[in-house]
Amino acid sequence: MKVVKMTEVSRQPHVAPLFTGPNVTRQAIVSDSKELIMNIVNFGKGIRNKFHSHSVDQVLVITAGKGYVATEKEKRVVTVGEVVWFPAGEKHWHGATEDSEFSHLTVARVGSKTTQLEE
Fold first, then answer.
1. How far apart are CA 51 and CA 44, in angstroms?
2. What is the DSSP letter of 8?
3. Hey, how many other C-beta atoms are within 10 angstroms of the C-beta on 41?
4. Which of 3, 13, 51, 101 is the most exposed place for a label (fewest CB within 10 A)?
5. In the Cβ-directed half-sphere of 77, how many Cα atoms lie within 13 Å?
6. What is this structure's pTM?
7. CA triple 54-1-36, angle to 5 deg
8. Hey, what domains does the chain have and what are their CATH numbers?
9. Which residues are CB-contacts of 58 (< 8 A; sequence separation ≥ 6)?
10. CA gap 119, 112 in Å, rounded
11. Are the C-beta atoms of 96 and 49 separated by less than 8 Å?
12. What stretch of H or E contains 27?
């Protein structure tokens, strides 16, 4: 068993072409699991990731702020305590609203491949 306080996990810059800006950090919540990837991703105001898909299901647990989750058909505002599930292969994006920072815990299987679908 491992118990982790999210507030005690350091934030590391997470700069990647997948994001619309540089104000993104990642906290590795559990780094020694052989089956799951669990990170908190923190977005600055108005920052999101670009349309992408995953080779496995992805779960987001909203931990701070207010953000958007979107597919090609729908865009919704989400807040703390909400859980979002994207099935494998679904084209989607997520990130902060213009007036709020935003954080979510992301859970996926080890070996998940992310495919960026927007430039």
1. 18
2. G
3. 21
4. 3
5. 8
6. 0.94
7. 10
8. 6-111 (2.60.120.10)
9. 85, 86, 106, 107, 108, 112
10. 21
11. no
12. strand 24-30
Strand-strand pairing, 36-43 and 58-71? unpaired
Residues 6+ apart with CB under 8 A from 21: 44, 46, 47
* Calpha distance 9→63 (Å, rounded): 14
Inter-residue contact 116 to 17 (CB < 8 Å) = yes
Tokens representing 48? Answer: 């999101």
CA 87 and chain centroid, separation: 14
Token code pair at residue 101: 């920072």
CA separation, residue 31 to residues 44, 61, 86, 100 (Å): 24, 18, 22, 28
Residue with tokens 């800006």: 21
DSSP secondary structure code for residue 49 in this structure: B
- Give me the amino acid identity at 111: G
- Per residue in 41-94, pLDDT tens? 999 999 999 999 999 999 999 999 999 999 999 999 999 999 999 999 999 999
